[in-house]
Amino acid sequence: MPPPLKNRSHAPAKVGQSRPPPRQPGRWMASRDAGERAAFFARREAATVLRRVLRGDASKRSGGSIKSLVFSPSVRNKRATFALVCQTLKYLPILKEVLASSGVFSSKWKKQEELVYVTAYDILFGQEIAVSGSVEEYIMLHKDTFRTALQKICVKRKVSNVEDLLSEKTTVKPKPRFVRVNTLKTTTGSVIEVLSKMHKVDKDDMVPDMLVLPPGTDMHKHPLVTDGKVFLQGKASCMVAAALSPKPGWKVIDACAAPGNKTVHLAALMNGEGSIIACELNKERAKTLQHTVRRSGANNIETVIGDFLNIDTNDPSYAEVRAILLDPSCSGSGISTERLDHLLPSYSIDDQDDAGSSARIRKLSAFQRKALSHALSFPSVERLVYSTCSIHQAENEDVVSSVLPLASSLGFELATPFPQWMRRGLPVFDGAQHLLRTDPEDDLEGFFIALFVRKAAAADALEPSEDGGALGRKRKRACTTRSGGLRAFSSLRLSRMDVLCSIWGI
Ligand SMILES: C[S@@+](CC[C@H](N)C(=O)[O-])C[C@H]1O[C@@H](n2cnc3c(N)ncnc32)[C@H](O)[C@@H]1O
Question: Does the ipTM exceed 0.90?
Answer without folding.
Answer: yes
